[in-house]
Amino acid sequence: MRHAALRYFTSRLITTALVILGAMILLFALTLLVRGDPASVLLGPQATPEVIADFQRRMGLDRPVYERLGLFLWNMVQGDLGRDVVSGRPVLDRVIEVLPYTLTLTFVSIGFAVLLGIPLGCYAATHPGSRGDQFLAIASVSVVAIPNFVIAIYLLLIFSIWLNWLPVLGTGPSGDWGDAALRLILPSLSLALSWIGYIARLMRSSLLEVLSEPYIRTSRAYGLSETKIVYKYALRNASIPTLAILGLGVGRLLGGAIFAEIIFARPGIGKLIYDAIGTRNYPVVQGSVLAVVVLFVLVNLAVDMAYGWIDPRIRAQSARAAAPA
Amino acid sequence: MAATLSRRSTLKLGAAAAGAAALGFPNIVRAARDRVVVRQDRDIQILDPAFRIGAAEGNVISACCQRLASFKTGSLHYAPDAAETIKQVSDTLIEFTLKPGQMFSDGYGEMTAEDIKFSFERFGIVQKDGKKSSYASDWGALKEVEITGKYSGKIHLKNAAPAIWRTAICDTSGNILSKKAGEALGEKITSQLVGSGPYRIAKWEPNRQLVLAANPDYKGPKPVFREVIVRPIQESKTAEIALRAREIDFTRFEDPVAGDTIAKEAGLKVVKMPGMRYLWIGLNVEKAPLDNLKVRQAIRLGVDVDEALTAAFGGKVERANAMLQSSLLGYWKDAPVRKRDVAGAKKLLAEAGLAGGFKTRLTVLNQAAYKTMAQVVQSNLAEIGVTVEIEALDGGSYWSVGKGDVGKNLDMSLQLFSAKMDPSFTSQWFVSEQVGVWNWQRWTNPEYDKLHVLAASTNDEAERGKAMIRMQQLMDDSAAFIWLTYDSAVFGAAAWVKPAILPNGTDWQFGLFGEA
Amino acid sequence: MNIRRPASSVFAQVWARGAGRVGLVLVLLIVAMALFAPWIAPYAPNKINVANRFADPSGAFFMGTDHLGRDLFSRVLFGAQIAIVVAFAVISISLISGTLLGIAAAYAPARVERFFLIVFDVIASFPSLVLALAMVAILGPSLANVIAIVAITFIPHFGRVARAQVLALRNAPFLEASRAIGVSGPRLVFVHIIPNISGPLIVLASMDVPVVITIEAGLSFLGVGVRPPLASWGTLLYDGYSYLTQSFWPVLFAGLVLSLATLGFTLFGEALRDAIDPKLRRIP
Fold this sequence. Notes:
The complex is a heterotrimer.
Chain A lengths: L1 H31 L5 H6 L5 H11 L5 H13 L13 H36 L4 H15 L2 H15 L14 H35 L2 H8 L4 H38 L5 H10 L3 H29 L15
Chain B lengths: L6 H7 L1 H8 L12 E6 L14 H10 L4 E3 L6 E3 L2 E8 L2 E6 L14 H9 L20 E6 L4 E6 L6 H6 L9 H7 L13 E7 L3 E6 L12 E6 L3 H9 L5 E4 L4 H6 L4 E7 L2 E7 L9 H10 L2 H9 L28 H10 L7 E7 L2 H15 L4 E7 L1 H4 L13 E7 L4 H5 L18 H11 L4 H18 L2 E5 L2 E7 L2 E2 L15 E2 L1
Parallel strand pairs in B: 1-10, 14-15, 14-16
Antiparallel strand pairs in B: 2-3, 4-5, 5-7, 6-7, 8-9, 9-10, 11-18, 12-18, 13-16, 13-17, 19-20
Helix pairs in contact in B: 9-11, 10-12, 15-16
Chain C lengths: L6 H10 L1 H23 L31 H36 L2 H15 L3 H12 L3 H27 L3 H8 L4 H37 L11 H10 L6 H28 L8
C-alpha cells in the first residue's frame, strides 16, 4: 500500500516536471518558427538596444540549436524569464506583480463554486425528482455549457449598464478592501457560474451514490435520523470527488480568468498576456504563459497528492473530460 | 443633491444601498472632493520630458515640474512660472531670472540656472546608448543656455524661432528637471521624476494607477485637489462605463458618440472642443506596390473618407483635406476634396499594372473608433480589388511600429498626431530626418524640408503661411497621405470637476484642475 | 466487447430523452444555419452601411445592425459556418490522429508506449487557450493556425481513450481469430479494430464539439482568431462589447446564439453518450 502510494507520488512528480520541461521546450521551439531576424520579430519595433543585447545574450543566437535550448532552459530554471521589451524590467517582476490579482480572482471564484455548488447539490440529492431538483438539473447543464465570457458580458450589461449597481471595472483604489471585494463579485461570479453548476451536478450524483451504499442503509436500519446520516456520514465521503475536481478547477480558471480580466478591466496575468500580444512583447508572453502552465500543473499536482493521500484508490483524472473549460 | 454618501458608508449599507440606487435613488457620489480620478488611454511608460512617448507622460510630467513660463488655464496665453522674469530680447535671445527658493523634491535642492541648461540642452544630446530625443526639434533652434548667475541665464537661439514659446518653453519639452537628480539617477531618470511643480508622484503602480499628491514644497498657488489619480483605461467604452459608475471623474472619449449618453446622465457633464488631433492614413512610399504613385492615388480615390468618419465618429467630426486645421496659420483653404471614385481608382490600378488588385495591411491603434474606420477602408478597398488585412496594435507597440528599419515593412497606417498651436510643430514630423522616427510614410521631398526650415525660422507670418500651403500641396501631390479629420475633442467629467484642457485637447493641466 | 449498434436505434434513444431532444433540435438548427447561411441570410454579411449603424431589431433587420450598419442576423448565420467548420476540422484532425496514435501506443513496446503516454500527459496538461495565445503571438492570427493549435491540444484526449479501448479489446476472440487467419497491419487496424472502438471515440468527439466552439469564439473574442471582416461569434461579441454602451443587441444576440449552440451540442453529446455507452458516464 505504502509502496504503491510512493510510486504514485513519484510518477506524478515526474509527470509534473516533464510538463514544465515540455512547456519550456515548446515555448523555445516556437521561437524557431520565426522567419527573419528573431530579435526584431520577437521583440517588436520598440525594443531598446539594451533589451536587444540582453535578448541576444540570453538566446545565444549564433550558436547551434541544442546549445540555445540548453541556455534557454538554464535561464528559465534560474527564474530569468527575460526582459519586458517596453519597460526593460525583468518579466518575472511583471508576472509577480499581477499574479496576486489573478490568484485572488481564481480562488474567490472557486470559493463561490464550492459554497454555492455543494449545498445546491446536496439539496438536489436529498430531494430527487422534486421541482427544485429538476430546475437545478436544467440550470446546471445550461451554465456549464455557456462560455464564461458570454456570462461576463451579460453580467456587465445587466449590473453595470442597465442597473448601475456595482462598481465593476478595475480593482479600485488600493487599500480599500471593501471596495476591492465589491469589484470582485461580478468577475468571480462570471468565472464561477459554470463551476457552481458543475459542482452541484457532481455533488448530487456522488451523494446519491453514497446514500445507496450498504453502510448508509445499515445506519438507516439502526434508526439514525436522515439529517444525521446525510450530513455526518454521507456528505464527507461524497465530497471527495468534488474536492478532487477543485484542483482542475483552479487550473482551468487560471486560464479562463483572462476573459474576466479583459472584460472587467482588471490587472492580472491573463490581461498581461493579452496586452503583451497587442504590443508584440514576446518575452512577456513567453514568461507569463510559462507562469500559468507552472501554476496550473503545480495546483493539479498538489490536489492529486492530497487526494492520493486521502484515497489512493481513485485518481483525480477520472472526472476531467466533462469539466467546464 | 439630497444625500451624499461616501463610498465607505455605501459599503456598510451594502445591498440596501445598491437596491436604492436601482430604484432611482440619486446615484452615490464620492463625498471626498479632495481628489480627482483621471483616465488616460494608455499606461505611462517613461517619465522623462525628452524621452516621453506622448501626452500621457507629458501631462504627468507637467504636473510635477515647473516651466520657465506656463500656459494659463486652458489657454495659449502664458505667464512666468519658475521664472521671475522672462523676455524675448531679440529674435535669437531670450533672457530669464528664476524665482529663488524653488525646491526640487526628494531633497535635490534649489532650482538654479544650471538646471535650466541641463533640462533644455539634453534634448539635443545623443544619449550614451545612442538614443536621441524624438522631441529634439522642439529645441532644434536652441544654440545654448548661457548661465549668467545663480538664478539668471540667457537662451541663445540659432535663428528666429516663432514656435519656441508655445512648443518648447511653455510646453512639455520646457519642463525643468533637477540636474543633480539627473546625474545621481543616471538611467533611472526615466522612471523617477524629480521636479518642483504642484504635484509629486506619490505612488506609481504600472498598469493600475499613478497617484499624484500635492507637493508641500511647491511655491506657486496650491492646486485645488490634494490628489490626482491617473488610471490607464485603454478602451473609450470602458472609460465611459467607468465614468458612469463614478469610478473616474474625467476622461476624453475617442468615440465622440459617447458624449450623447453621458450628457443625459445626472451628475455628469460633457465638454466639447474643436479637435486639434489630426488623423490620416499614411502610405509607406518605400514599400511595393505603394511605391508606385498611381497605386497610392488609386487607394486615395478608393477610400470613402466621409463614410469612414460617419462609422467611427457618428458624423460628429469634420473632414480634413490637408495637414493644417483652419485655426492654424497656413491653413490651405482650397485643398482638393476628393470624392470616392471606384472606376477612377480601378483605372489607376490598371495603369499601374495591378488590375487584379493586391494585398496590403492597414495598421491601426487598437481603439474601437479606429478599428471601425479601418473596417470601412477594408470594405471600400475590397471594391477596387485591394485586400486589406487590419492589424490593430496597442499603444505600446503601435507608437513604435514605424520606427527604425522596422518601419520599412509598414504598408498603410492610420495615424493620429496631436497638434500644438504652431504649424511648424505639425510640419516637423514629415521632413526627411523624421523617416524612421515619426515620418512613417517615409516620404521625402527636399523642397518640403527647405520650406519647413524656412517657416520655422522666420517671424514673417505671410511668408510662413505661404510656405505652409506649398508644403501641403507637395504632400497632396505625393498621394502618401489620405487626410481624414481633425477629430473632435469630447470629454466627459463629473459635474463638479472643472478640467483644465489646453486647446489642442490632448494636453491637460492637472495642476489647474478645479471644482465647478 | 462489441458495442456497434445501428445508428437509427442510437438516435431513437437520444430522441427519447427530453434533454437529448432539445440538444438534437438545437444542433440541427445550428448546422442548418451554417449550411444554408448564403441562402437564408437577407444581406451580405460584410456589406457595410454606416448610415444605418446600431439599428434596433426590426422587420428588415431581425437582430438589428452593428457598428458598421451590417445586418447582425446575416452575420450570426455566417458565424455558425465558422463555428461548425472549425469544430469539424479540429475534431476530425484530433480524432483521426489521436486514434491512430492511441492504437500505435497500445501495440508498441512498453517503453515506447510509456513515452506516448507521457507526451499525451504533457500536452493534456497545457491550458489550451493559453497555449494557443502563445502560438498566435508568434505565428500571427489566422483561422488555420487556430485550427492547428486547438487540434493538437485535443489529440491526447482521443489517444488515451483509443489506447485503453484497444487494450481492452486486444485479447477479444474475434481479433485473435482474425490474426490467426493472417490479417495484420492496416487491414487489422481499419477493418477490425477501429470499427470496434469507435463508439466511445464518437461520444468523446461529440462532447468535445461545444468545447472547441467555445475556444474558437474565445480566441476570436481576444482578436487572435479569425480576421475581420469575417464574422465569428467571438468577433461579433467583441465588437458588440466595444460598443456596448451604444447598443446591446449585438452582444445579446451573438451571446445567445453562441450559448444555444454550446448548450445544444452539450445536451446532444450527453444523450449520445448515454445511448451508446452509458459506462462513459461520469456525472449524471
